[in-house]
Write a structure and sequence with these properties.
about 425 residues, about 40% helix, about 25% strand, binds histidyl-adenosine monophosphate, 17 strands, 2 domains, 16 helices, BirA Bifunctional Protein, domain 2, elongated, five-stranded mixed sheet
Length: about 425
Amino acid sequence: MDLKRIERPRGTRDFLPEDMEKRRELENTIRSIVESFGYREIQTPTFEHLELFTIKSGEEIVKEMYSFKDKSGRDLALRPELTAPVMRLLVNECSHLPKPIRFYYFSNCFRYERPQRGRYREFWQFGVELIGSDSYLADAEVIYLAYKILKSLNINFELRVGHVGLLRFILRDLDETHTSRVMRLIDKKDIKGLIEFFENIKVNKETKEILLSIVEKSGRSDILDDVKSIVSDFNFGHIEKVCEILDNLEVDYKLDFGIARGLDYYTGIVFEAYAEGLGAQNQVCGGGSYRLAHLFGGEDIPCTGFALGFDRLMEIYECKPREKIKIVVVDLGYKSDALKVAEIIRDSVKGVSVITDTMERSVKKQLSYANDIKADFALFVGKKELETGKFSFKNLKTGEQFELSLDDIINKIKMYTQQKA
Ligand code: HAM
């Protein structure tokens, strides 16, 4: 039979140990920062009822979803993002918790998009949701948190803050479908398409002019006076206070009223971060304030949050994951004794890898394998060792060899571990 090789599905990736070690390093760095702000981890199912996402996630995401019927004919979808699932979880499981609730997640998402550099069909998001407050303090906290994480990664990025509430206010005479279409065009920076669409739906001249002049405004917080003079009947108090906090915390950001976000649920402040060195798919963070819980049968709770594009960050994040010290136990023919010695080392020194022979190889081959996997030490278990309690212990990096008791070997490994830390 002619068996053909099975490739992985388009837009997905395999991760080798080196990749995973680096991914865990990045994950742990982000995890420790969000936890230092009081966020606690949650996890939701990989697939949900399709309608969870079709209710309010925007037309883009619906086209891009992996949706399917299960064997009982239910319409399901692999999650394209986690904000809607978190809101469902909130309504179902924890609406009684004291507010505000601070949740975070690190999970894979699935979008049926055209794969390219930085755009995958399976990708990971690290996100936070701050639930229960519509105060400027909540928006300021999540924006600052996103900024702090990105800063800690030593990458070059630009943070932009906008306000879809202002855009929606300007568009208040349009119906929801038209508003959604306009937001999509703004999000894509398709100004030509936007002008054409306004002409088609016969928007009044004033709305059109105000919107076009606003979406092209970006800069420091001092552009607010300019924007206020264009939309004089909007309350700018919230965004002014957010800016004041960000300025005081010395956050480097720009206001940008052309940020519309690709998802329909945002209501107020929105923000995005773009990183250098990524090519076209350079958005590494997106978020803002939104209301969704009432659509899933809960109270109308104000929320704010963001998600980081973990895979995009991985491309530009530089780190050298600390390698575990490897000790190969070379078995001279005393199988279960060698395994016992390995267990003693594992239990006595934390954070090292103790590797035993599982191929019944000769001593020469066991040593050659130890070199191939770049082990630090070889510990020999033979007749002499078991009788005298003194084991041959070789530093494979320097070639030095010692005859030591297991206690002394353990101390040596501990010292070596401390030096390498
Ligand atoms: P989003 O902007 O659609 O927002 O996704 C967040 C981040 O996920 C993006 O900024 C990007 O870095 C990354 N991302 C999106 N699609 C892909 C892809 N195909 N391949 C690789 N990375 C990708 C949300 O999903 C919102 N739920 C964020 C949020 C949380 N808003 C409030 N709370």
